[in-house]
Amino acid sequence: MATATRTRKSARRQKVEAAITYPLDWLEERSGLVGGIKYFLFRKVPGDTNWFHTLGSATLTAFLVQALTGVILAMYYKPDPNSAYQSINHITNDLTLGWLVRGMHKWGASVFIILLFFHMARVFLFGAYKYPRELNWIVGVLLLVFGMLEGFTGYLLPWDQTAYWATVVGINLNGTAPILGPFLADFLRSGSEIGGDTLSRFYSMHMLLIPGAIFGLIGLHLYLVIRLGVSSPPWSREAAGGDFTDPVAENGRSGLTRPGPRGNG
Amino acid sequence: MTEPQHEDRPHLPGPSLYPIAFAAGVACILVGLIVNPKIVAPIGAAIAIVFGFLWARDATMQYRGAPEPIEPEVREVPPTTQAAAIPANRGEAAMPEPAPGERFPRSKFLEASTLGLGAVIGGLVTVPAIGFMIVPAFKDQGYPEVDLGPLENFTEGKWFVTSFFMHPEGGEVSRRTAYIRNNGQLQGKPSFTIISNRCAHLGCPVQPNGPVQDNQRKVVKGEKGQRVTMTPTIPAGGFGCPCHGGQYDPEGNRTSGPPVRALDRYQYSIVQGHLILGTPYSVSEVDGQGKNAQIHAYKLAGPGQHVDGWEQILYPIQPPH
Question: For chain B, what is the domain count?
Answer without folding.
Answer: 2
